[in-house]
Amino acid sequence: MTDKELVRKAIEAKENAYVPYSKFxxxxxxxTKEGKVYTGCNIxxxxxxxxxxxxxxxxxxxxxxxxxxxxxxxxxxDLDDYTYPCGICRQVIVExxxxxxxxxxxSENDFRVHTIEDLLPNSFSPDDLxxxxxxxK
Length: 137
Ligand code: THU
Hints:
Number of helices: 5
Largest sheet: 5 strands, mixed
Strand order of the largest sheet: 2-1-3-4-5
CATH class: Alpha Beta
CATH topology: Cytidine Deaminase, domain 2
Number of strands: 5
Number of domains: 1
Shape: globular
Bound molecules: tetrahydrodeoxyuridine
Order of helices and strands: HEEHEHEEHH
CATH superfamily: Cytidine Deaminase, domain 2
């Protein structure tokens, strides 16, 4: 699966976005290390805090199906610009690895590639909790 193919899947996934409030559809496509693809869209809620972003929809689909080894996540919106994951999604992404690749697409042919560590430097992550098992108690 190339970055471009994953971007195409994110663009397609955007079609299912449920965005009656923001009218801001977002699509995501997640590639697991096993080569499986899980897509997601944003799903809004009349009680706005219940909204789920496209990235987290894709992650929760993958994890709930037993796939936690995430290779890459592509993200696309309708803007003629790059749409970066929000802070909550960045924190959820880093849960599954600091080297996860993020492909932020303006279009099928125009995308930027980062790692989650680029976008969430000095993060709090599962590594920090593991340190407690050592001499920290
Ligand atoms: N949103 C996403 O789904 N992913 C992003 O990367 C940025 C924001 C959604 C949340 C909400 O449904 C809408 O975009 C406007 O904030």
